[in-house]
Each structure stands twice: as C-alpha cells, then as structure tokens.
Write a structure and sequence with these properties.
Distance between the termini: 16 Å
Number of domains: 1
Radius of gyration: 15 Å
Number of helices: 0
Structural class: mainly beta
Order of helices and strands: EEEEEEEEEEEEE
Number of strands: 13
CATH architecture: Sandwich
CATH topology: Immunoglobulin-like
CATH class: Mainly Beta
C-alpha cells in the first residue's frame, strides 16, 4: 500500500479544496485506488449514472491514472468519474495514437462522501504512474492536481508527471 498527496497546479489553485490524496493498493491481484478530497464543500460532484465507459469525463470532477513502462513512449490513461462512469485509453506516444483501451473487466467506481474508490484495475506492476485529478468547484472554477507538474499549462500526459510506481502484487 502507498499513499500519495497530489499538489495543485500553481496557475489553477483551488479555492475550496485543501488536499487530494490517493491510496493505492492491490487486492486479489487487482489494483485499487482510493481518491480522497479534503475540504470539498464547494466541489461539483457529477450525478450518479449507469456504470460504464464514457468520454470527456475530465470536463468536471474526475480522478485519473496514467501508466507507462520504463523506456517506452506508449502509455495508458484511465479516467474515473464520481458518477460511476470511467474511460480507458491507450496512446502510442505523447498525445499520439489515442484509442479506446480494451480491459479484461470493467473497473468499478464507488462514490464516497469525500471521493471515490476504484476497484478492479489490472495494469501491470513496475510501471511508472501519474496520479491526477480535475476538481470542479461551484461557479465553474477547475483545479488540476498531480504528483508533479511540468512547466507551463496543466498537462497530465507529460512525462514529468510519471513520478511514482504501481504497488507490487501481493505475495502468494
């Protein structure tokens, strides 16, 4: 198990959220992510929807995982909405060759009072990851949270964001 604290992009700070953290752990061989938002009284939480794949989840409050192999240009992007919707994409290189990523099982996004828990992810171990979040507040203001930010505008696809590693699988 590992706990990560995300930092807001300096050009897009939150007026309401004090902290976003992610607990990453494996259960029954699958990766689970517990995203928590502290001080989120003004956060826009998307309304519950039928679970399933959906695009453009990042336009409102959304939690994300990016995973990349060492030395590789290709990577995967996973988006998780508090609504219960999710998305998964594969890229050949930085923002190039985007396509839907086929998953062996659909992830389950469980809405909590202060965030979400994502169950059933199966990315391989040892990958570099970027844990990120887009938080929308009432009034439409958005803040962008990540383990690290490259210079300039928010860009979660940038290699500078991939600063952590997936937790190792459980011992048999």
């Amino acid at each position: 198990m590992a706990i990560y604290t995300l930092i807001p992009h300096p050009d897009f700070p939150s007026l309401a959220v004090k902290e976003v953290s992610v607990e990453a752990y494996r259960r029954d061989g699958n990766l689970c992510l517990h995203y928590r938002v502290e001080g989120g009284g003004e956060v826009v939480w998307p309304e519950p929807a039928a679970p399933g794949r959906a695009d453009e989840l990042w336009k409102t409050t959304c939690f994300e995982l990016f995973a990349k192999r060492d030395g590789g240009a290709d990577y995967e992007e996973f988006n998780f909405s508090p609504s219960g919707r999710w998305a998964a994409y594969a890229f050949d290189a930085y923002r190039a060759g985007m396509r839907d990523l086929s998953l062996p099982v659909d992830p389950r996004v469980e809405r909590l009072v202060d965030g979400v828990i994502v169950h059933g992810l199966v990315p391989g171990s040892g990958r570099r990851i970027a844990l990120t979040a887009v938080i929308e507040e009432t009034g439409g203001r958005r803040s962008f949270w990540s383990l690290a930010h490259p210079p300039g505008a928010p860009d979660f696809h940038h290699d500078d964001c991939f600063v952590a590693r997936l937790p190792a699988p459980e011992a048999p």
